[in-house]
Amino acid sequence: MQRILSTELATQEPGREVTIAGWIHRRRLLKSVAFLIVRDAAGFSQVVVTEPAAREQLEQLTEESVVEVTAVVTANEQAPYGVELIRPSFRELSRVAVPLPFEMHRPTLNAGLPAQLDHAALALRHPSRAASLRVAAAATKGFREALEAQRFVEIHTPKIVESATESGANVFKLDYFGRPGYLAQSPQFYKQLMVGVFERVYEVGPVFRAEPSDTARHLAQYTSLDAEMGFITDHRDVMAALTLTLEGMLGEIGILENSIKGEIPAVHFSEALRIAGALEDEPDLAPAHERALGEWALREYGSEFVFVTGYPMRKRPFYTHPDPADPTWSNGFDLLFRGLEIVTGGQRLHRYEDYVAALTRNGESLEPYAGYLDGFRYGMPPHGGWAIGLERFVARLTGITNVRETTAFPRDLNRIAP
Prior knowledge:
Helix 4 packs across helix 6 and helix 4 (127-149) packs across helix 11. The chain has helices at 52-59, 113-118, 120-123, 127-149, 188-198, 235-253, 269-276, 287-301, 352-361, 370-377, 390-398, and strands spanning 17-29, 34-39, 44-49, 66-75, 83-94, 153-154, 160-161, 173-176, 179-183, 200-208, 221-230, 266-268, 305-309, 322-323, 326-330, 332-337, 340-348, 383-389. With 418 residues, the chain is an alpha+beta fold. The two termini are 37 Å apart. The protein has an 8-stranded mixed beta sheet, with helices on both faces. A 5-stranded antiparallel beta sheet has the order 3-2-1-4-5. The chain is 29% helix and 28% strand. It is elongated and about 85 Å long.
């Protein structure tokens, strides 16, 4: 008999014999009846045991053991999906013979985050932990589909690179066949070059930042949702494409569909400082400033999102395009969601001579950038793009305070296993 999932039980006719399989989520052994909750990837099934032989089998099983259950469908409004299973027979597929480090049948895990991370293989099975990973999966699917609809092409770029040149953040160095190599901090250079191939490109992949930051919002490895598009007028075209993409992501997740109402409000960096009550010569927004701007956008526009544009050029990477009206400001932006920066983007330089000038001003040699600069030597259109940190986005969306809870196997300042 072919196995069915818990969510399919409601479509089965009462009296029909079916087979389910999954993990023993909980057993309740009462005097005259026993209840078994079986968990599978879709949800839960309730099995009622009254027969002595079946009860004897059940008493030998332990929580989180994997079982196959063949039983008869019957209606019960109190059971998951309004259906429960009776007259079962059990086949043990895998037995748990060691004590569990924490209880899995509680609505929330009764273990601290370090214990959960130490026993990630078990903790991630809990519905509360699995739920955030499903949100991440839906967000990624929505990201891909929204960009495909806008004529973007998915690419895959190297994660081992020759030079640590992308930004000032610390990098992970490695031995690459006897010579130095680095883990990529971003696909930025490669996605720009691929604009010369496909015009519009995107990537979903890991990036690595060796920043010694041990906070609830930092990871040493995270998933970046990157996009880059050519033939733009300026950064506002990029912001418009990002808005469409976010709508697709939120729609796929199935929550906050109305949180983006048309155009996301935008405020220039200089005005953002005033709104946040910051000093006018501040070079960047502090977390408190971001929270103040989030409150302002919600109050004034009813929006949980707000763009901050025109960051000072001195705070943006060398490839950022300056504002033609005032080159001290950039055509770059950040997107804040509920008072937290989740997206960085902007217009890039696209002429070879502008890159030479920018690198020379920074006192940098052109040699480490030779392969990157070739793309501009051979002609590139005006272009720009963005990067979304998936884990931070999911954490903000779900109200989770620590990005490690939105990551299956997080890597941070102190953790490299499991």
